[in-house]
Design goal:
This protein is an alpha/beta fold and about 375 residues long. The protein has a single domain (about 1-360), classed as Arginase, Chain A. It is built from 14 helices and 11 strands. Strand 7 (about 210-215), helix 10 (about 225-230) and strand 8 form a beta-alpha-beta unit. Bound molecules: zinc ion. Zinc ion binds near residues 218 and 336. It holds the Pfam family Hist_deacetyl.
Length: about 375
């Protein structure tokens, strides 16, 4: 296992930004925020329980036998409802992210080309997706925002999950985690960087600049996110990934933990447990965005690690519980996961929502 940081040691980074931390740290008292209204299908409802962000247009058509398991998104919600982990009263439906919002991370030229179908074929190949209006719509919903929040009508995001987390302490999306997207191009099945847009948006939209910790436990390095925030002291990027996996050319996160092929549950959990507590204590984020990718699973077609379902559950439970117990809002996205068996994959992705539900109940949120 190797550790990499921008300044060689994380401690030097933390010392350098200590003044910023102390000025901007806000203690969040989530118990005194009133219940909020959210949208389910066409009508407004009060959310009861853990907020779950989902849109039926998270899916779009792909060519036959395409490797990306597009069908997983509605199946995640299906299994959560079927297994009575959640009720439909918990589901929040987003609107399309606006170009204005996406522009806080992505270049105008790229957004213009992407939205209007002007991405050249070579660049489309790099993303792994052929361009279509459907894929644009899907990605913009994934970077969602709800119509209810009139104050923010031009904004979007895994932003919604983050907003709900800031209001309620914890919220989960049924999509998101497209961490390979850069400001000016897409890559590795990622076209818009929802994590970066949410972090940037919620960092900027507060009087004292919120500090955001991105915990990226997808098996692939969050290279796009690391690049976007390489000079940003108020966003800390923490990535645990398999060193030999995609992308070949890694970027530098604030903390990279590169693990060897074949790592199993115990060692993986210990790796996360080694770093998360001191990161929370030292950086003191006002918001955590958690990419709970399930591609470290032993059955995953693109991962190279050997985590079990139980190992993934323990990981998600540990991360969410540790953050919530510190009183820090946390929003989760599902990240990567690859299998031709869509239902097995969807159930695997729903592990994070199951873990979040347990924390929600235990902590009395
Ligand atoms: Zn991945």
């Amino acid at each position: 296992m190797t550790y990499m940081t921008k300044q060689n040691t994380v401690f030097s980074w933390l010392v350098r930004h200590k003044d910023i931390r102390e000025k901007t740290f806000l203690k969040t008292n989530i118990r005194h925020i009133p219940r909020m209204i959210c949208l389910h299908t066409e009508r407004s409802n009060e959310i009861r329980g853990l907020p779950i962000v989902h849109h039926r247009k998270y899916v779009c058509d792909l060519p036959p036998n395409h490797r990306f398991p597009m069908g997983k998104f509605p199946r995640v919600l299906h299994f959560l409802l079927k297994d009575q982990v959640i009720t439909d009263k918990q589901v929040c439906v987003p609107n399309l992210a606006s170009e204005e919002l996406l522009g806080c991370v992505h270049t105008k030229e790229y957004l213009d080309d992407f939205i209007n179908g002007k991405i050249e074929e070579k660049k489309q190949k790099r993303t792994g997706f052929p361009w279509s209006e459907g894929i644009v719509r899907r990605c913009r919903y994934e970077t969602e925002y709800p119509a209810f929040f009139r104050t923010w009508t031009h904004q979007g995001g895994t932003v919604l999950a983050a907003e709900l987390a800031l209001q309620r302490g914890l919220a989960c999306s049924t999509a998101g985690g497209t961490h390979h997207a850069f400001p000016g191009f897409g890559a590795g099945f990622c076209l818009l960087n929802d994590l970066a847009v949410a972090a940037k948006h919620w960092m900027d939209n507060s009087t004292s600049r919120r500090k955001v910790l991105i915990v990226d436990l997808d098996v692939h390095q969050g290279d796009g996110t690391a690049f976007i925030f390489q000079e940003e002291p108020n966003v800390f990027t923490f990535s645990v990934h398999c060193g030999k996996n995609f992308p070949v050319r890694k970027q530098q996160s604030d903390l990279d933990v590169s693990v060897e092929d074949g790592m199993e549950d115990k060692e993986y959990l210990e790796t996360v447990q080694t770093h998360l507590p001191w990161l929370l204590e030292s950086f003191r984020p006002d918001l955590v965005l958690y990419d709970a990718g399930v591609d470290p699973h032993w059955e995953d077609e693109l991962g190279r690690l050997r985590l079990t379902d139980q190992g993934m559950y323990q990981r998600d439970l540990y991360v969410i519980d540790t953050v919530v117990k510190k009183g820090i809002p946390i929003a989760t996205v599902i990240g990567g996961g690859y299998s031709r068996n869509i239902d097995r994959l969807a159930i695997r992705h729903s592990i994070v929502h199951r873990a979040a539900t347990k924390v929600w109940k235990q902590q009395g949120l």
